[in-house]
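Ticket #4471: structure export looks truncated?
Reporter: QA, pipeline team
Priority: medium

Steps to reproduce: submit the single chain below to the structure queue and open the exported record.
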Amino acid sequence: MSEEMINVYQTWINSLASANTIHKYTSSVTLFSNMVFKKKPTEISEFDLVHLRYSDVLNKFVTPLKENDIKGSTIKGHLIAVRSLMKMIKKEGIYDKANIDDLNNYVLTDKTLKTNDVKHHEAISLEELDQFKDFLTKRKYRDDQDGMMGKKYAELVDFMFKTGIRVTATFSIKWIDFQFIVAHDGTRFARLDVIDKGHKLNTKYLTLSYYQNLHDLLFTGSDEEFVFGELSHESLKNAFRDFSKKINHRLSPHSLRAGAATTLYYQTKDIMLVKDFLDHESVANTEKYIHNQTDPTMTGTAMLTSDYDYSEIDNLSKEQLLMLIHSRPEIENVVYRAGKDHKVLK
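Actual output as written to the record:
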C-alpha cells in the first residue's frame, strides 16, 4: 500500500463539499476499485492506472451493474466519483506515467449511459404477478431436493411486491431483523428493519400470519441465517428474463416495486401512502413509479363526461353488490377500510 496514495485519498476526501458527498463518492470509488482492481482505493497503483482499459471498465463494472438492474444514471454517478479521485491523483502528481486526462475522457467515460431511465423498468400487474408465481412454481431448479424451490421463489417475488424492498436488500435480510410488536388495536405485526438503497433504514410491518407463512416455508433453523439464503439473485433474474419472453412484456426484479406502487396507488389514491411505502424523500420521485392505467373508463375525461345515476345502486341485490365489490381489488380495499372506519367490521 502506497503512503502517497493514502495521502491523496485522504486529501480527496477532505476536498469534498459535504458529509453526504463524501459518503456517496467514497462508496462509489470503493465499489469501482473492488470490482475492477480487486483492491481498496488506497491500494490503487500506478501500474493499475497505466494498464486500465475501457474494456475493463465496461466488462468488469458497467455491464455487471446493468445486469443487476442498476440504472444508467446511478452508474454514471459512480464514474463521476471515480473521475474526481483521478483528478486529485493528477493534481498531487504521484503517478507521472498514468495519463489521467485520457483515463477520464476515454476510459472512465459515461457517454453511452442513459441518465433518464426511470421507465426502464415496466410495472408488473397483479395478473402478471400471479402468472409469474405460477411460472416460478412449475420451473425446474438445480439442487431442488425437497421439490419446494419453485414455491420459495414464488414467495420471494410475493414478498418483494408486498414490501417494495429492492432485490439486493431483500437478499440481505436475516430472521433476526424481525421484531414482534402489538398495534394500538391489539393487532400483532412482525416489524422488519432493513437497510435499503442509500444505506437508509427501511421499516416494514408484516401481518403476523404473513410472517408465519414466510417462516414456515423458509426458516432452516437459525435466526442468524438469511431469509432467502437458499435462493439466488442470478436465478431470479434468469426467471424474469424467460417469463418476459413468454408474455412479451419486459420485466425485471424492479418491476415488482413499480407494480406494487402502481397497484397501491390505484387501490387507495393516496400518494403519501405510496411515498412512505417506497421510502421516498419526495412525492415527485414517487410519481415516476406510478404507471398509467390503460383502461379508458378510468381516465379523468371519461369520468367527467359520464352521467352517473348512483341511485341505481339501491336496486342491486346483496349478491350483485358482493359480486361488484369482489370484482376489483381497489373496490374491496375501499369498502373494507370504510367498514373499519364505521366500525361495521371487526
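Status: closed, not a bug. The export was complete when the record was re-opened. Leaving a note from the reviewer for reference: The mean pLDDT is 87.
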